[in-house]
Amino acid sequence: MPELITKYRIFLASPSDLYDERESINDVIKELNLTYGNQNNIVLELLKWETNSAPAISNNGVQNIINNDIPTYDLFIGLLWMRFGTPTSEFGSGTEEEFNIAYQKFQEDNNSIQILLYFKNATPKSLDDINTEQLGKVKLFKSSLGEKNVLYWDFIVKEELSRFLRIHIPTRIENLKSKNTYETIEKKIPSETEQREIIEIEEELGVLDFQELIEESFATSTQSLTIISDATSWIGSEMNKKTSEINKLVAKNKNQPLSIKVQRNIFERTAESMNNFAQRIEPEIPIYMTNFEKGIDSFSKLIMIYKSDFDNKKEDIIEASDSLDFLIAQIEKSLINLQEFLTSIEQLPKMSKEINNAKRNVANKLSDFITNLKMSVTLGKEVHKNINLKE
After folding, report:
1. How confident is the model at residue 63 (pLDDT cuts 50, 70, 90)?
2. Domain range for residue 320?
3. pTM higher than 0.70, yes or no?
4. Per residue in 233-287, pLDDT tens?
5. How far is residue 138's CA from residue 123's CA, in Å, rounded to a whole number?
6. How far is CA 67 from CA 13, 37, 44, 63, in A?
7. CATH number of the domain enclosing 369
8. Distance from the first to the final alpha carbon of the chain
9. Do residue 253 and residue 198 come from a single domain?
10. 354-375 in b/e burial notation, b at 16+ Cβ within 10 A?
11. 389: which of 140, 151, 227, 382 lies 20 to 30 Å off by Cα?
């Protein structure tokens, strides 16, 4: 006898400057349908004006055509970056109008819809891409969300957004499960291709596989973090040695100013040490982030399996949870140390071209890594919130 599945529609709204992010969400929905959806008799349908609207004409503006073409949905996803969009007859942009439609629906029935809002917090490739008027409208809209009790999330790259959505969409769908906003349809038998995809996911990646991936990935991330921490301790020691050397020379010369030649020699060696530090940490940054993301993705999928197949058995997931807690604690500790060291580097006086170049080199590498660490903490805490183990 055919099974019944619950269908949830997700509407995606954003201006044109987030094309890549919009495209990446297609893959997220496809993946969730094969993992979370397949295990819970749920199907997710992504609605976008590109795929759910069609050419037409309207006396009330183009946005009215899109509004009428989009079916009723259960989850609203809004994305904003530097552009606010083209004004409509009633609102500052199509995205704002689409958000207000969703928000009004929530106001009328708190159980009818969930809203997910994300703001891209990244610098464009060129300053010419920044339209101050458009950016100002985005900031004004963002500042207005507090009084509406709307919680939003920031992201930097599309990969980070995808990871957030893999966590947040199932969480909000679970909130809607007991509500009557969904559509129940007959479960279709998957095609041979879809069956192979499902079998590959379920057979190749089981509980033990994910546990091994988590252990190996987090261990590699921790190793890279340790290497970078050791390198930071080393460069800190080298900087102290150079400072001590200068103090000794000044004392030896009875507090007389050091010659330019002596100063240049010290600063050249200091710059060499700083560049050596940057060279040591540079390869570790992608190793750290790649493995952390692999571990986080495995952790998210492991939680889904435990929730669907093992009734949230606490004893089976607590070890992985502890490893995540430990890693997050280590990351936060490293963040404090690295931010303090970055501040000290940025405060170094511009004594020579060698020092200035080395200072810029180190600051760029550290800033990049600190950004990755902050992203890691956010992702880790989001996954941890999603565990919800039963006592």
Report:
1. confident
2. 207-385
3. no
4. 999 888 888 888 877 877 777 667 778 888 888 888 889 999 999 999 988 988 9
5. 15
6. 11, 27, 20, 6
7. 1.20.1050
8. 36
9. no
10. bbeebbebbbebbeebbbbbeb
11. 151
